[in-house]
Each structure stands twice: as C-alpha cells, then as structure tokens.
Amino acid sequence: MRFNGLIKSKTFLFGIIILTAYSIIFVIIYNSVVLKMERDMDADNNIQLEVIKLSNSIRLAVDSAQDVVHFSRKNDKKRLKSSLSKLSASIALTNKRFEEFNKNLEKFPYLKKTILPFESRAYYNWKNLTVPILTTLIIHHKIMAKRAFMEPLFISMYKTAPNYAPLMESGFQHRIKDALYFHIILNIIFIAGFFLFFIILTLFIFNISSKELRIQESEKKYRMLFNSIGDAVFLMEYSKEGFPARFIDANKAGLKRLGYDKDEFLKLSPINIIPKADYDKMKNYFRELALKGHLTYEANHITKDGKIIQVEAVDNILDAGTTKMGVCIARDISGRKALEKKLLDSYLKYNNLVEFLPVGVYQATIDKEGHFIDVNDYMVKTLEASGKEELINTKIVDLYVEGGERTNVIKNIMKEGVYEFEGKRRTLKGRIIDVYIACRLKKDDYGKDMIDCILFDITKEKELENRLKESRELFMSVVNSMNEGVFINDTKILYANPAAVECFGYPEKELYDMYVWDLFGEKDKPIIKANIERRLKGEQFYFEYTFHTFTKKGEEKYILFHVQTIVYQGRFVALAIFFDITAKVLSERESEKEKLYFQELSETDHLTGIFNRRKLEKSLGEYVKLALRYNRPLSLIMFDIDHFKAMNDSYGHQIGDNVLIELANLVKNNLRETDFFARFGGEEFIILMPETDLAYAKAKAESLRRLIEKNIFKYIYRLTCSFGVVEYGEKDNLGNTQDIIGSLIKRVDNALYRAKENGRNRVEESL
Question: Which of 104, 348, 503, 661 is deepest in the core (most CB within 10 A)?
Fold first, then answer.
C-alpha cells in the first residue's frame, strides 16, 4: 500500500519520464556517435600498426640485402647463406603484410581518398620494382655485389618507407577534428543530463514524506537481513489453494543447511524438502496458513543427503497482484529439541533420584539461623519429622548439638564454595545422630546466596568404626602375644608380630623394606612370587608349605607356612602364620635312610597310598599265570605326567608330591574294584586290568586322559598325561613268568614312549 502511494506521486512520475527520455537520448548518441568514433579510431590504429609492420618488413629486407652484398664480397659462405635465408623470409613476410593491408583498406571507404593512392603506388614499387631486384640478388648475389647497384636502392628505400607516417597523419587530421567536435557535444550532453537528474532527484526527495523514507529504510534492512540472517529464509510462490508451488529465492543459511547450491534448490518443489510421513500434517498447516495469512509451527526438513532437521517455521503470505507470495523463516531447533529432551530426562531422573535416593538432599539459606528451602523424603526420615512441612518450618540451628558450629560452617562455605564436614545433629524427637554433610554455594533465581547439600546418617558407621577400633586393638594384643610368627604382606611385609620379627632376625624397619621372597632361598622364590601374584588379584586358596631360609645372622631354619588370602585396608593381601620346625626337619633328616629302606620293603607307596612297584610285579606274575593257564584276557595301562620335571623345577618338589597324591586319588576313584593300580616309579603309574581286552583297556585309558585334562588341580590348576596300552598275547610267551612280565612292561613302556613322541596327552597301543 505504501509503495502504491509512492508511485501515484506526480513529481515521482514526472521524474521517471524525464529520466527515461534522457536514457533513450544517451543510448542513441552513444551508439551512433561514440561507438562509431571508437570503431573508426580502432580502424585508424590498426592501419597505423600495419603501416609500421610494413615499414619494419621492408627495413628487414633492405638490411638482409646489405648483408648479402657484404658477406658476398668477403666470401663468408656461412654468414652469406644465413643472410640469403633471411632475405627470402623478409620478402615473403612483406608480401603477406601488403596483402593483409589491402584487405583491411577495403573495409573502410573513408580511407580511399587519403591512404589508398599512396598505398597503391608503394605496393606497385614494391611488387614490380623492388621484389624482382631482391630476387635477382638472391639468385645472382656475386654478380649483383660486384656491380654494387644496391646503393641507389638503399637510398630510395629509406626515403620511401618513412613517408608512411606523415601521410597517415595528414590523412587522419580531419578525423581528429571530428573527434574533438563530438567529444565537446558529448560532454555538454552529459553535464546537462547530470544537472537535469540532480534537479529531478531533489524534487523527488522533497516530495517523499518522512514516513516513506522509513519504509524505504525498512525495505533496505529487510534485504540486508535476508542476505545475512543466520536462520534459513525461503521466498515461495503459493497456489490459489494456499499450498507452496515453487521456490523463488533462498538465503545462504538455508542453502548451506540443506546442502544445495542455488540453481539446484530453485529447481526443487517445496514438497521435496518435507518427509513423506509429514505430508498430511503439513497440508493441515498450509490450510491454516491460507486462512490466517501467517503461522508459526514446527516441521521436519530433509537435506540433500537425506538427513532430517527439526525446524521452527514462521510463514507469512502476501498478495502480489494475481499471485500469492510468501516468506518462510525456518530456525534449526534440532539441537534445542535434543537439549530439551535431555533436560527433561535429566529433570525426571533427578527428581526420581533425589526423591528416592537413600541419602539426604536439601537446599537451605545461609543466614545465622538457617532455614530449609526444600528437602527430600530421606531428610524427613533421618531427622524424624512428621513431614516435609514440619522440617521446612524448623530452624537449622536448632538441630545443632553445639550452637557455635554453624557460624564456622557458613564461613567455610562462603570462603571455599564447596565444603565437607562431619558432626552431630539432633533429630526432631531429640535423638543424637552422627552425620556427614557436603555443601555447595550457589545463587537462587533472584541472585541471593543459598546452598545445595547432601547429608548421610553415619551413626551406624561410627559405631562400627568404634567396634572395629576395639577389635583391632584386641587383635593386635592377641597377635603380638602369640609364639607363632604372623605377618600380612603384598609384595612387601605390611605387618609382622614380634615373633615373626624375632624369627627372621632383622630389625623391624629393615624387614618392612624387604620383598617377601628375599627372605628365602633361590629355589623357593618362584613359588612365593607366583602365590603372591595370584593373591593380589583376589584369588582365594589355602597354601601350606615348608620353606628353607636363613636368618640375618646366617642361622639355617625350616619354616612351615599356612597362608590365606584376606582383605586388608581395602585390597587383597596374604595372611601368613608360620612355625619354626627346624628341629623336626633335622630329626627327620637323620632317620630318612631308615624310612627309605622300610618304604622299599612295603607294598604300599608311602606318598600316594596306592600299591608300589614291588607289589605290582608280584601281582602281575600271579595274573599272568592265570591268563596263561585259562586263556583269559589281561591288559596293562601305563601313564605318566607330561612335563613333570618342569613342574617340579617351577613349583618345587613339595608341590610335585602334592600333585602326585591328588592325581593318584583321582584315578583310583575312577577304576573298577578288580583293577590293580600301582605307582611304578617317579611320576609313572601302571593299571593292571584282569579279564580285560585291548579295546576296553584303550577306551578306559582315553576316558582317564580326558578326566585328568579337565580336572582342576589344587596347586597347579591343570595338567595332562600320556598313556600306553598293551594286551597280553602270544608274542609275550618268551619263557618263564618273569620274562613274560618283562615283555609286557617293555611293550607298554614303548607305547607310552610313542605317545610322548606323537605330541603327549594322548593314548597309544602296543604294535
């Protein structure tokens, strides 16, 4: 409406008419005069340039002719040949430039009176006089040089060539006068047009009201806003039904957000940037927009690469003659929506967490008396109030057991911003409780200081702490009075009772600085290190072992250790209780030979509790006789532990003995009552199976192999065994019973050896 009023202004219309007429006159003059003059000047310049080129070509031909004469007289064949070539090229170039010059002269009729006569004479002289002479010079250069007829030609040429420039100046003098005349006229027109335009512009400015100026400024700002606004702005044409028909324009922010360049975007239909799932919803929006003329709504836009962006759109429709135009400002609210969802989730989680958290949470003022602003249910329960209202109406200072404490607490909070402390509080029922409180200073919505706090009821913890303190004192009293050594250790000793300090003979400070394994011999160190590493990882197992050591003074000792994993100061450590059994070990050492003698005579293996080799050979002889007499099947299984020597070297013989015992018990519990099980020697075992053929014996051996492989052993966790199997047969009938026994044992031993050779942890039968 404002723009229509501006157009109806008479002064404005008169100014437009004058400017239009001036523009038309200027265009006519410019095309008929200025451009024509420029074309003529260009032609003159081109003619002058070609004249200069012709002059240069003729000069080069003359110079080359002089060189031919000169080098011919001196008989310099090499330079003479080069000069002849240059002269020939100069003649050809000059001919070509004369032809081009003639063609250009024909395009400009006004040059016929000035340049053409002289050019025709010059061309005739060149073509008919000069060129034949120069050509003859090229062919008969020696004769021409002798006669020296070139001097008059040189003089004539130098006189002829410089005349081009003066003739051109006289020929173009009238063109220069014309150009000056037209320039004067053109300047007068421009000056008159400028003053006319200035007068019209002045009338136009005075005719426009201040209100119209503000409208113009608003339109200018709107255009600047369109180009620089950070939100996406789309200009669209709407159909008669009120739906977007096509895009007219888009600002840089909109194109960048959707990933299109401007040409691509303007080819799109507005429906192309809306997800198909939103079509129905957007149709309803557009119907409402058509009725109201403006609408704010939330929608989804699709980028070029298919990404969905949430936007808040503000649409306005304007009537522009027969069509409807609209502007849409779309703000990207994806981040805001994500943040709103996150804040909502956080708020709900926070409320649920605070309300049902098993810890007191409250907000309070920082004045001298102190008042609760908000509290959770745990605070009500802890301080034994009837409800939140009763607690909020209670002064915080009334809950203090010592009245002066609050002043110091507030000072520390104001100073540090965050403050933690322990103290005592009185509940609303008068009961005294121990509490831990952590406070943080903050501002409320009005900028006033307040505090957020959490409160823990630590009454039970304090009671437990006191009990633990008493228990610790009692424990220390008992442990310190024990005759047995006790210490707690990780890699180093953390605590040792007086008996332990006395046993090793080191000062207490020096003992605590040593690694545990440094108290023992090299043989025992790997075992101790391995056990400590397992315990520090939290592995629970009982360990009993005898170690050989020396005190600081060099006194030899044997110590029996009982070790268990415990938790000490929040981490896994080892608790060791040990006894000095040096006297017992030395006594046993004296009688060891006697024990070995009786052990060999015994039928039972002293370590594993199963039959020994002597008993095996005796029983095997009896079963061989029965098998031979009654033609009954008889089979033997021999097995031993894989890598047993390495096990002994790593863990010690004590662990090796314990493994043998555990293995023997495992196998014995999985045999028939009729089977005969014996330790053959070292880690080798033999199973004598009466009334058993080779197939069953081999199946049984495989069953035992799998059982041992899957079993978890107490001291080394896992081990495997290799098996050899043999059945009594004709090849064993070598003579007496002892020979048969020897044959069977040799064959089963060979089978075991083959199992070892083929990779261990397997069963092999006798060939």
Answer: 503
